[in-house]
Amino acid sequence: MNSSAALTCRPPGAVSLAVPALGSREARPRGRFRTLLRRLAGLDAGTGHRDASWWLARHPSSVGRARRLTRERLTAWDLAEQSVAAELLVSELVTNALRHARGTVSLTLSLQDGLLRCEVEDAEPLLPSPRTVHDDDEGGRGLHLVDSLACCWGSARTPGGKAVWFELPASRVATADAP
To answer: Which residue ranges does the record assign to the Histidine kinase/HSP90-like ATPase domain (predicted)?
Structure first.
């Protein structure tokens, strides 16, 4: 998908449907700017909205760091039961960013409206698309995993490149005093 935004949403277990969503409200990533605006407006106080972001070095060790950061943050948000799936999918997106993109890479986790959103941003404007893989291929399955395990995922161009994101249902609401 090479449009300016791509979105895949479905209930778990349903047939996957990829829909180009040029400029649609549903496809816009909830990135740093929205989070910043919500903070400045005081909208996050008491709503259960949480977010955390990190810059990752362009080094293979950043994949393990991204998994650890995800696990630690989900534990702090009382969402440890989501950690296994989130860590796996975050590691796939970070690996793709390190392998296929250039420039800086960032990881953002946010919890809002009963959904955990994980977003990886890099400096490459080309949007990803799942590719056909064969049984003996050693790679190329990352986006298929994201599509299988996430309830929703997509990508969108950003001013500095692109963001690829997925969402998982959050079975618990974070407490007001969680980091």
So the answer is: 59-166
Q: Is the pTM of this model over 0.85?
A: no
10-42 pLDDT per residue, tens: 444 443 333 333 333 333 344 444 444 444 544
Q: Which residues contact 128 (CB under 8 A, 6 or more apart)?
A: 1, 96, 100, 143, 155, 164
Q: Domain range for residue 111?
A: 5-9+32-40+49-133+149-169
- Lay out the sheet containing 152-158: strands in order across: 18-20, 5-9, 152-158, 161-169, 115-122, 105-112, 50-56
Helix (H), strand (E), coil (C) string for 52-104 = EEEEECCCCHHHHHHHHHHHHHHHHCCCHHHHHHHHHHHHHHHHHHHHHCCCC
**Token pair listed for 100:** 């296929």
| DSSP one-letter string for 19-58 | EE-TT-GGGS---HHHHHHHHHHT-STTT--EEEEEEE-S
CA distance linking residue 174 with residue 92, whole number of Å: 25
100 in Cβ contact with 140 (< 8 Å): no
